[in-house]
Amino acid sequence: MDAVLALRPTDADALGGHPVLAAAAHTPDQRIEGRRSTVQLEDGGLPFSINGVHATYWFDTGAELSVLTESEAKRFGLRGTPGVCQVGDVNGTQVNMRIAVADELAVGSIRIRHAAFLVLPDDHPPL
Description:
The chain is α+β, with helices and mostly antiparallel strands. The protein has a single domain (2-120), classed as Cathepsin D, subunit A, domain 1. It contains 3 helices and 8 strands. It has helices at 2-7, 12-24, 70-75, and strands at 31-33, 46-50, 53-57, 67-69, 79-80, 85-88, 94-107, 110-120. Strands 1, 2, 3, 4, 5, 6, 7 and 8 form an 8-stranded mixed beta sheet that branches. It starts with a helix and ends in a 7-residue tail after the last strand. The model has no long low-confidence stretch (mean pLDDT 82).
């Protein structure tokens, strides 16, 4: 993103994404273990676990980043990264957020180590 901004300092996409990527730069590299898995929907959603804590959510497969509320991040025991940045929501409102990392996100037999999430305040849920 820095390279894009060096070439085009007013690029709206680069300017919009830069704060999140800068915050994510402090996270360890994600690692995927396992490539295929069959998962049955439960209670109308996808069963998974974060750091061993089970949950069932619907997923937005077109989303660029995974988002949780502060209380959910705490429930899953996510580790925070330094700093807070602002992102725009679908209404154009700027919202403070942070990046947090799960040691393990498990869906079926697939494991994602160091999975990063955007964490939003509880009073501004992702949906």
